[in-house]
């Protein structure tokens, strides 16, 4: 089991563009059109599957919202920060 990050650790490690929302970290990515967002979701899904750590994803017309938390641990862990950085690399 991964250890929960402290508030200070979350604050210092949270990638640019990401925000904390309770026990989750979240980011909304903007796109020129719907299909570009869908392509991004496919890339993110492949990364998540490789890491075996799956986000919640909401798809809008020109945006995709990604939410990460470590459900088993009950909050934000290093796995969430790592995945956020990997998703940003796909953007």
Automatic annotation (TrEMBL):
CDD domains recorded: PCD_DCoH
Any Pfam family matching the protein: Pterin_4a
Broadest EC class assigned to this enzyme: lyase
Protein name as annotated: Putative pterin-4-alpha-carbinolamine dehydratase
PANTHER family, A to Z: PTERIN-4-ALPHA-CARBINOLAMINE DEHYDRATASE
Cross-referenced HAMAP family: Pterin_4_alpha (MF_00434)
Sorted UniProt keywords: Lyase
Family, similarity comment: Belongs to the pterin-4-alpha-carbinolamine dehydratase family.
Catalytic activity: (4aS,6R)-4a-hydroxy-L-erythro-5,6,7,8-tetrahydrobiopterin = (6R)-L-erythro-6,7-dihydrobiopterin + H2O
Protein source organism: Halobellus litoreus
UniProt key word Membrane: no
Gene Ontology molecular-function annotations: 4-alpha-hydroxytetrahydrobiopterin dehydratase activity
Source domain of life: Archaea
EC number: 4.2.1.96
Annotated InterPro entries: PCD_sf, Pterin_deHydtase
